[in-house]
Specification:
By secondary structure, this protein is an alpha+beta fold. It has helices at residues 4-15, 42-51, 92-113, 170-180, 193-204, 223-233, 235-240, 242-248, and strands at 34-39, 56-57, 87-88, 118-127, 137-149, 158-161, 167-168, 210-219. The relative contact order is 0.19.
Length: 251
């Protein structure tokens, strides 16, 4: 006789990626797939992007200044834009390649799957598998959806707030609640970001974990976590559906 509960568990486990390959749990600074924002500082950046919904441009090369080796002095403001400039942890050449790559990938994701997967992460939880472990992993905390716009080849890349929902990392929430019994607090985007970080730190302090006040832009997809939760939430209806049972192997 078919055990639908067992079958559902198999399906659910295939949907969930809790491995260290998942950037939602083990975020690593790479040369081509993400970029950290150094200036403005995290709380100023939150104010500009989330609260004021202000477009922010990345620096462009000042053609009137002489090149010094591979480094270029970058303008604080361009002629075309009046928005403040972002400073990153990459060289100018690296920055341009990464932003072009992220812009291209995010457009493809929207065209093919109909969703935005480009996020500006605010804060990272530095966590470990056990209290005695010296190996720590960084996981993004608050995920803010954004878009990167490039109007012309001579224009700067511009960061804009996307109209999707701001969320707490759902994969991290699941991992902490199911493996450690830790429930992350809900986040109010109209609330105080630093206050939220402190609340999280209070909850995880006994584990020896901390919250890093850093920001980074990257592609993050967590569609499957929603499918995973739906399979649990509607387990009874799914188990009784004749079509689903047939797919599961019920003759």
């Amino acid at each position: 006789m078919l055990d639908m509960n067992a079958k559902l568990e198999v399906w659910r486990n295939k949907l969930l990626d809790l491995s260290k390959r998942n950037a939602m749990l083990n975020f690593r600074d790479t040369r081509r797939s993400n970029i950290r924002i150094v200036i403005p500082a995290i709380h100023d950046l939150w104010q500009k992007v989330v609260v004021d919904e202000e477009p922010l441009e990345f620096p462009i090369r000042d053609q009137e200044l002489l090149e010094t080796g591979d480094q270029f002095k970058m303008t604080g403001f361009s002629d075309e834009y009046s928005s403040p400039v972002l400073k990153t942890n990459k060289t100018f050449q690296e920055q341009q390649k990464i932003l072009l790559n992220l812009r291209s990938k995010s457009k493809t994701f929207i065209e093919e799957q109909g969703i935005n997967a480009l996020y500006l992460s605010f804060g990272f939880l530095s966590w470990s598998e056990a209290t005695y472990s010296e190996q720590f992993f960084d996981a993004p905390l608050v995920l803010v959806p954004i878009t990167i716009v490039l109007e012309s080849i001579n224009s700067p890349f511009v960061l804009n707030l996307h109209d999707d929902e701001i969320v707490v990392n759902p994969t991290l929430k699941y991992k902490l609640e199911n493996d450690f019994g830790i429930k992350l607090p809900e986040f109010d985007e109209d609330g105080d970001l630093e206050l939220y970080f402190k609340r999280v730190e209070e909850i995880v302090s006994s584990n020896g974990w901390l919250v890093k006040r850093e920001t980074s832009i990257s592609m993050l997809s967590f569609l499957k976590i929603n499918m995973y939760n739906d399979l649990e939430r509607h387990r009874g209806e799914i188990s009784e559906n004749p079509i689903v049972r047939a797919i599961a192997g019920d003759a």
